[in-house]
Write a structure and sequence with these properties.
The protein is mostly helical. It contains 16 helices and four strands. It has two domains: about 240 residues, no CATH class; about 140 residues, no CATH class. Strand 1 and strand 2 form a beta hairpin.
């Protein structure tokens, strides 16, 4: 008996894990004000009784039994109770701005990974999309800068020599105690982002997973939202080169694929999203890697030929035939020449007119440079090459504008190893960055 690749309960466990992820994070993504987020903006004399609701809400959303929630005292404390003898509030030094719960997020992500990687077999597209979307539902928004500054100010206040005067109350640290450095909310947020990004990468690179268009789009959208474009060039390359799994005799066998096939081309919308994420993250290496695996790949070039050149090619091939039949009909309307001679004259004249007019139109279309800002074609580049690699030139133009100076009068003044490498890379692609003859005032 062959083992079922996925028992019926695997999808249920994955859904439960996704519900647990959303249940833990609903309080962060809700648009109502939270007591934990507004604590730093309240005065220091706020009573402890007003904090009872956020404590209970947080305990409920983290799947803790209600019986374990510790009820705070309902007796209001006077405002002076929160003041120390030196005039500072007791909560000013111990307050930490809200940040993502790294332990809870790690546990939820690990639970989704165990549910997805546990079954043996080839996962379906819907099952993989459910895992990616379950991870993407985790709220990884960065902590506001004001909260981080308040945390740093509080930590600096603790390190002041005046804080040692608290030893008069018997609160001085012991000799053997060592202060452990606490991670700031920004660092905890980055840890959560890295955890979610690595989990998505693990799911997509799992050998039995088939990277479809929907899975690739979901992964690119997730990494773009997280600001982690470093893995996008590799995943875009795996979309065309990853071996395809097949079940044979109860085991999984992998079949090699042809990465140059037209159906392995990345959609233009996905490629644009990935390139925008790399530019926003200021990662030049990732941007060029995305370019080479999308617009510059053989699969993309073949796909463009099929989608945009096949129909016009048939039209060009059928034009002489249509002109000949039209010339034959015109020859029947005159009596000065024989029909055969009149057909030849009409055919030659119409073919020359259409041919010359089409040639002038093609030259005007392929040599237009109004859409070019900084990257232009080198002189002598064939028109067919210009048309075929126009998307690549437009992407390099966007990269050059993003990593260079924004002022037009400073074009060409960029320095640095990275930008010099980009200039040489563009030159090797039969293009020129900041051609002098096309600059303002030089033409």
């Amino acid at each position: 008996m062959l083992r079922r690749p996925y028992p019926p309960s695997s999808g249920l466990r994955l859904c439960q894990a996704c519900e647990l992820v959303t249940g833990r994070q609903w309080i962060h993504s809700a648009k109502r004000p939270s007591a934990a987020l507004s604590l730093g903006r309240r005065s220091a004399d706020m009573s402890r009784a007003t904090l009872a609701w956020p404590i209970a809400a947080r305990s409920f959303t983290t799947s803790q039994p209600c019986s374990k929630v510790k009820q705070p005292s309902q007796t209001p404390q006077p405002a002076e109770a929160s003041q120390s003898r030196f005039g500072r509030t007791g909560g000013a030094a111990t307050y930490q701005p809200p940040g993502p719960d790294s332990a809870a997020v790690a546990a939820a992500v690990d639970r989704v990974l165990r549910t997805f990687l546990g079954p043996v077999g080839i996962p379906s597209e819907q099952f993989t999309l459910t895992a990616l979307r379950g991870i993407a539902q985790i709220d990884v928004r960065p902590v506001p800068d004001a909260g981080e500054r308040r945390s740093e100010d509080a930590a600096a206040e603790i390190r002041r020599p005046a804080s040692q005067l608290l030893g008069l109350d018997g609160m001085s640290p012991k000799a053997g105690d060592v202060a452990r450095p606490q991670r700031s909310p920004a660092q905890r947020s980055q840890d959560v982002v890295d955890k979610v990004s690595d989990a998505a990468y693990t799911i997509v690179t799992h050998p039995p997973v088939v990277i479809t268009r929907n899975i690739l789009e979901e992964y690119v959208r997730l990494q773009a939202r997280l600001g982690r474009p470093q893995s996008l060039p590799q995943i875009l390359g795996l979309y065309a080169t990853k071996p395809k799994p097949k079940m044979a005799s109860g085991s999984i066998r992998y079949v090699e694929r042809n990465p140059s096939r037209a159906d392995n081309a990345v959609d233009s919308a996905v490629a644009e999203t990935a390139l925008g994420a790399a530019i926003e993250a200021k990662d030049l290496g990732a941007a060029v890697g995305i370019l080479e695996n999308t617009y510059s790949s053989k699969a993309s070039l073949r796909s463009k030929l099929i989608k945009k050149a096949l129909l016009p090619g048939f039209a060009v091939a059928g034009t002489p035939v249509a002109i000949y039949y039209a010339a034959t009909e015109l020859a029947q309307l005159q009596h000065a020449l024989e029909p055969r001679i009149a057909t030849g004259f009409a055919f030659a004249g119409a073919l020359c007119y259409v041919g010359f007019t089409a040639t002038i139109g093609m030259v005007a279309h392929f040599t237009a440079n109004d859409q070019m800002k900084r990257v232009t074609w080198a002189s002598g580049t064939p028109l067919s090459h210009r048309w075929l690699y126009e998307e690549e030139r437009a992407a390099l133009d966007k990269i050059a504008c993003a990593f260079g100076f924004s002022e037009e009068h400073r074009y060409g003044e960029e320095e640095g190893e990275d930008f010099l490498w980009l200039r040489e890379y563009i030159l090797r692609r039969s293009m020129i960055l900041d051609a002098v003859e096309l600059m303002p005032g030089m033409n």
